[in-house]
Each structure stands twice: as C-alpha cells, then as structure tokens.
Task: structure prediction
Amino acid sequence: MRHYLDFEKPVADLEGKIEELRHLSEADGINIADEVARLTEKADRQLRATYAKLTPWQKTQVARHPDRPKARDCIATLIAEYTPLAGDRAFAEDSAVLGGIGRFRGRAVMVLGTEKGSDTETRIAHNFGMARPEGYRKARRLIELAGRFGLPVLTFVDTSGAFPGIEAEARGQAEAIARSIEACLSAPVPVVAAIIGEGGSGGAIALAAGDAVLMMEHAVYSVISPEGCASILWRDAAQAPVAAEALRITADDLKRLKLIDAIVPEPLGGAQRDPAAALAGLADAIGAALAPLLGHDGPGLIARRREKFLAMGRDSLI
Amino acid sequence: MSWLTEYVRPKIRTLLGRRDVPENLWVQCPACEQMMFHTDLEKNLKVCTHCGHHMRASVTERLAWTFDAGSFARIELPKTPADPLRFRDSQRYTERLKSAREKTGLDDALVVAHGAVGGHRAVVAVMVFEFMGGSMGAAVGEGLLAAARLAVLQEAPLIVFTASGGARMQEGAVSLMQMPRTVIATQLVKEAGLPFIVVLTDPTTGGVTASFTMLGDIQIAEPGALIGFAGARVIEQTVREKLPEGFQRAEYLLEHGILDMVVKRTELAATLARIIGLLRVKELEAA
Result:
C-alpha cells in the first residue's frame, strides 16, 4: 500500500480507481486498457502539477515521508563492502548515527548517517533519528579515523534534530555537537554531505559542515522545525505552514542563499515513489561533488572548506 | 462603552505618576526578594548582597568589570546583510531589529572590545541578551570572527561572555551556518597559540552553546547560570519526566564535567587575569 500525503489526495483517488479497474479486468477478463491508460495519464498529470508547486510545508511532509529512502537505504545501495563501526569509546553506541567504512564506486570511504527508521520498530531502535551526545562523539571519532587513513567522508543527513533529553544534556549534547562540527571542518579529507530528508538544526549541521553540501530536491534544511518556530514566534504550532514559508527551508531557497552547493533532482512524485531512481541520482551527485575534491591535499581542503563557510552570509540575499 | 474608558484612564495615570517617584534607588533581588540600596548592589557587581544571586548585567557593566580600571576600546564590527530571508511573523524582522537597536543603542547582539586584563592584552566579546535574546545571526557570527581576527592580530587571548537564547530564527539557515562559522573563529585563535576562554552567563542555550561556546580552552560559568542545548520545556515534553533539581544550571554542568569552574562575579576578573597569566607562557618567554 502506497502511503499518500494529504495534498496527494487527487492522485490517490485516481490511482485508487486504476487499481480497482485492474482488479476488475483480471477477475472478469474485460479489456479496460484504454480506460486505465487514460486514468494513468491523468494521474501522472495531476502528480506533475502537484509536485511542480509544492509549498515549503508540503515539502516538509515529503521530506518526512515514511517511504522515503533513509540513511540506511543510501548506505545499502551506494556503499559496497559496508562495514559498520560502533561506539564513542566513552559511554555508548548510539544507533541514531550510522557509521562505518565501505566503498563508494570502488573508492574506500567513511560513511555517516542519521537514521530515522521506517516503521515503529526501527524508529524506536534508532530513536527517531535523534542522536545523543554519543552519536556525535562517534561521528567525530570516525571522521578523525577517516582523516588518518585518507578516506573521504560521505554523510547522509536525515534528522529532526539532536535528542532533547535529560541524560543527553547531562552528558554534554552541546559540546558533542560543537566537536562534531569542528571535526568536519578539520578533516584533511573530502567531506561530502547530503541532506536526504530533514536537515534539523544543530543535529544536522553536526554532520554537514562539508566541502560539498547536497540537498535532495524535496529535502528541507532549517535552523528550527516549522512547528517549533510557529509555536515560538506565532505562539501557535498550527501556524507551521506559515513558518515553513518564512524560514526558507527548501533546497531552492538554500541554493539561492548560497548555503548549499547542489540540488539532487528527485523522480516525479518524490523519492518515495521510486527510491531506486532517487538513489541513483544521489550517487551521481555525490560522485560529481567528490571528483574535484580528490585532487586537493589535506591542508588545501581544510583551507577551501573554511573559506567556503566564511564567505556564507556575507552577500547571500534572496 | 465610554464608562469603561472613563474608568480605566485614572488608573493608568496613577501608574504612570508613580514612576516619577525615585523608587529605583532600592532594588529587589528576584531570587530572595530582599531589598538592596542601588549603590550597594552596583558595588557588589549586581550580585545580591543577601543571597549571592547573580543578576543579569549590561554590556557596559561587563566590559567595565572585566578590563583593568574599566578601561577598554570598542571596535566597530563588520556590516552584514540585514534581513537575508525578508522574514516576517507578526512583525517584520527589520522592524524587530530596529526596535532592538533603539532599545539597546547597539547594532546587534555582540560587542567586542580590547584592553588589558590583569596587565595582559586581551580581546573581549560580550553577547547582549537584551538584543533579541542574544540570538545569533550573521552579525553575531561575523562579530565573533572579527573578535578572533583581532585576537590573532594582537596576539591576545579571546574571552567571550555568552548570553543567548540560541540561533536567530528570523535568519533561518543563515543563522544555522553561524555554528560552523563561529567554530572557525575558535580555530583561528587556537591555531595562533592563543587561549580561548569562555565565560558562560545566564542564559546560554541552543545553537550558541552547541558551537563556539563549548570549545573554550577554559570554560567558566557564573553561579546559577542556565546553560544547555535543548530548552527545558522541549525536554519535558519529549521525555515526559520532571526535570531534576538544578538541571542545566552552572553547578549541574560543573558536576557533569562540562565546565572547568563556576566563579563568582566578584572573583571573575582576577580569575581571568590569573588564567591568562598562567597560559601565556609563550608571551613571557618572548618578552
């Protein structure tokens, strides 16, 4: 069963009808091919029209779609010989942050990702993609490890943010995030970050201070969730759609603000409709971002990366 | 409804009238509710003479208390795009900025000055909580970078007094990018072999805590200061538990190994001077 979002209802109705007709034709041997073709074309047009003008709030729904490829899917599809590595060596393993070594298109790399999970069981197992300090400390450890062995770092970011919990604060959530950002900025190897779904605030930038930052077409990247912003500035979480608009969280917005480097196109109707095509596009974009970085030495990469972040906001106006 | 306006007006007049009486000669401590004469409170650096509660301080006071003989020079900070998102909620961001500027007489939520601390050259950056909750947007980020560059130029330690509600939402992802940008500021200072000292004051939260604030070579906090990443309300809603006594206070962070020390405001300048003296071995050797 396909999971439809509220605004996809017209598409859902059409595709529902097509499905019904198909069942009918199978059961009764009636040829309704023409009708199916007509409806399919209509559904396709409807989908194209809907996705051509998604609002930032609708994009947020797409970015959070349960069927969208998650970090785990990115790793499974894009990384060969994936060898997960666990733990922060101090307190715990945090399963909200996936990490390990493997090969991307033949080249050995370090991979990191925030994993939300895709059903109740995996969501709980990965703490809904909200990392604790141990997750960021593990990230830092693995980025440093990558630096020592000359492995480029690829990150897949999909998180609503760092976990807001009592223990997380007690164990230094803020420090862990700060050090993870520092590790990204200090890595003497290429760092390519991809915001694949939700890029939530400090919990996202902790893994995204890279040489190249890519965003999937329907991903969102924001300093605060639209709901959080709405409840603070509008004093009403129901104003989230308005806040989503005001915060400029879409890939187009961030590209215009020169805060990200490239947008990865998604299949019609979003990555959730065709994860394989979406991931193929992501692989190409990562490959394209990585290639020019491989020619630089460590100090050169660090200097370039620093200059890139220092230039941000100086002249970026929408 | 004229009876209502007639009824309300005299009340407002009496309220306004009362303001003219010089009642602010006496200040009430928000913690213990005891009264203090204003000169006594000022002499004690805005620390309650009864219970030791540290009240919030203004930028001018911070700078005066920190530099030797209260003498320092402020630097002008770089200009940044004023409203990168053209943001508006119930009010335009540009209007909020304007009223914050009128209220504080400052351009944004950071002030940078240089002078001597305990006889050592030092650059001091102070975050201004009264300016939109001390929130960090491009101006604060650029200001911290300017402070770091000045420290490097003067071969002086950088001391930052933090006070912030976190990122400036009105600048969206531009404010988020100030996290890596301010981390770079700390790297500039450290790479030059200079101490980066953070003094966390009440309150320091959100993205400001999770970037340059937590990267100090030495981390000092004022007693009772609220310090954390996530807001207490958000945590309560997420974990559905009552927060422990003293949660996210300076003493709690000290106990959890996140700070080097909690220092009373009255001892802060001397502590900073001593630390700089001890860390600046290179400076002494060169001299």
